[in-house]
Amino acid sequence: SPDRLYLSTNMASSSTSSSPSSPIDYEAIPVKVLKFSVRKKLGLYLNPTNTVAADWRDIAERMGFSYLEIKNYEKRESPFQSLLDDWGTQPDATIGKLLLFLEEAERKDIVSDVKYLIDESCREYLEKPVQVPVVDSGHQDRSITVHDGHLPEMFDAFICYCQSDFQFVHEMIKQLEQTDYNLKLCVFDRDVLPGTCVWTITSELIEKRQRMVVVISDDYLDSDACDFQTKFALSLCPGARTKRLIPVVYKSMKKPFPSILRFLTVCDYTRPCTQSWFWTRLAKALSLP
Fold first, then answer.
1. Using CA of residue 32, residue 101, residue 226, residue 234, what is the dihedral sign?
2. Among 274, 278, 254, CA closest to 171
């Protein structure tokens, strides 16, 4: 349509200059830079289920979410903001894509009303790009795990799990550490010294380790700690180019598989026909350089 052509042409001809008079290359700016106030205003438009105009569910479909995932978002207090948070972890989630989805859904009213706020977030990002937090080098000599000494203890993978799945983590230790695989897993309850700040230490451990095994279950989906660990690890490897995250499913789930991990290959223990290969596949993935 002429309107979409205008938006696409406008994006293609723009540059990344932060000058207020310069056009913005929306395709080059991740959607995660949007301020809370912008997300809230978008939610005010899209959260109400409207029989006339397209709502958040239409945008969710364009983002690639499945029917079951969308039904799960309906339970959230602000479905669109939750949706935007999860979609924003994907490497191709840009401001340009979001604007295009709104245009395709014929919600130009939203684009017109919120565009200046989006531009404000974009220009602030261009002036001071968002960076992944790095661990202060002044803390490198600090002991954070039980066997840290002059040199930090080395692990092959950090295990992300919730307490209700700890029995499977024990089995993982048995199969991967106490066999010929001879791998070393970082298990928070076993290896981390008490008295440390949970979020800071978790970030440091994930950043230092090459791999992170994510034990997926219904309880995992309700864990704030697991949510933080997963999103932090994803921010370190957009698009999973470094094969950093390895999702593991060991029992059947009633809830939908987490949308932010759906683009990763899963190590599935629930299928009897593949259980005999499960530990070999997982060990091989953790042993890759």
1. negative
2. 278
Contact 247, 264 (CB under 8 A): yes
What is the DSSP secondary structure assignment for residue 196, as one 8-state letter? S
Sheet-wide strand order for 267-268: 185-186, 157-160, 212-216, 245-249, 267-268
Q: Which long-range contacts (CB under 8 A, 24 or more apart) does 19-26 make?
A: 20/123, 24/95, 24/119, 24/122, 24/123, 24/126, 25/96, 26/94, 26/95, 26/96, 26/99, 26/122
DSSP character at residue 219: T
Do β-strands 245-249 and 212-216 pair in parallel, antiparallel, or remain unpaired?
Answer: parallel
Q: Residue 10: what pLDDT? A: 45
Structure tokens at 119: 């531009």
Tens of pLDDT, residues 244-286: 789 999 999 999 998 888 888 899 999 888 888 999 999 999 9
| pLDDT tier for residue 243 given thresholds of 50, 70 and 90 | low
Of all residues in the chain, the percent with pLDDT exceeding 90 is 32
**Residues with Cβ within 8 Å of residue 5, at least 6 apart in sequence:** none
**Could you report the per-residue pLDDT of 120-170, keeping only the tens digit for each?**
988 888 886 444 444 443 444 455 565 555 456 688 889 999 999 999 999
Tokens linked to 19: 């000058």
The C-alpha torsion from 163 through 169 and 171 to 173, rounded to 10°, is -140
For the chain, the first-to-last Cα distance in angstroms comes to 48
Q: Strands 185-186, 212-216: parallel, antiparallel or unpaired by DSSP? A: unpaired
Integer Cα distance of 67 and 174 in angstroms: 38
